[in-house]
Amino acid sequence: MRIILTNDDGIFAAGLTELAKALYRAGHELLIAAPDSDRSCVSHSLVLRQPLFAEKTLIPSLEGVKAYAINGTPCDCVRLAVGNLGFDPDVIVSGINIAANLGSDAVYSGTVSAAIEGFMIDVPSIAVSKDKFTADHMEDAAGYFAEKLPELMEFFSEGPAMLNVNIPNTPRSEYKGVRAARVKLQCYETKYNEEVLPDGRTAYTVKPGKLTVCDPGEDTDEGRMREGYVVITPLTYDITDYSRLGRAKTMFERNAE
Asked: Which of 115, 117, 178, 215 has its CA 20 to 30 A from that of 159?
């Protein structure tokens, strides 16, 4: 297969390197188009008011793979790879992200947004993340994903779509299997930590941790991954609230002719 590989952790991130090595060993043709530095949590942003540059880059241990470091977001990388870098992919793969992209985190994730961008331009796309902010067990996760890819591609038999894959931070031998599950709606603390700097300014930094709790056995992406399963969730970019669309029509079109 022809695969565009990107991420949001940057072109030299361990997750991208291990995944590229696993896919290359499996015989796939790769084009790496990834941010030149960490662009985590940039969501679906694009660079509009400055030029983008795609610099040919050599990634250690991947000398046979064409790679570009791009001074933009993950979505910029996808668009450049498809539109300008001369590569017609069968699938776009974004990852492997260091830390899971579960539930509402997917809204903020550059990793997930890159895959959604691929779906938006009619290319089958997959985001893949491994739990915990560590490179531990990354080679296992990459090898597993590479072997699972043909099965994942069967999901796209009816047309382009997007899958979000989350892998536990354990040795591969401890994966309990695969589950498909909905996203876990999450809530975080809105108040930031505050620190007064020597120059008198107040610095604000994000507080870690969630306010919501994942119940044991919950049939959500977070619940199933915490049990040790690899979790797959189809996502889409249609943000219409269909459950309330009828009410909106009734309220706001009541006097329509």
From this structure: 178
User: Is residue 50, in this structure, part of any structural domain at all?
Assistant: yes
Select from 30, 91, 89, 90 the least CA-distant residue to 62. Answer: 30
Residue 9, both tokens: 């952790």
Contact by Cβ (8 Å): 19, 87:
no
The pLDDT value recorded for residue 257 is: 60
Query: What is the total count of domains within the chain?
Result: 1
CA 46 – CA 77 distance, rounded (Å): 9
- Distance between CA atoms of residues 153 and 90, nearest Å: 9
Show the domain range for 226.
2-185+214-252
Q: What pLDDT sits at residue 223?
A: 94
pLDDT at 256: 64
Helix axis angle, 74-83 to 110-120, nearest 10°: 30
Mean pLDDT by 10 residues, the chain (257 residues): 97 97 96 96 94 95 94 98 95 97 93 97 98 96 98 96 98 97 90 96 90 86 95 96 94 78
Whichever domain contains 104, its CATH number is 3.40.1210.10
In the chain, the amino acid numbered 130 is K
162-167 and 125-130 as β-strands: parallel, antiparallel, unpaired?
parallel
Report yes or no on 178 lying in a domain.
yes
195 beta partners: 203
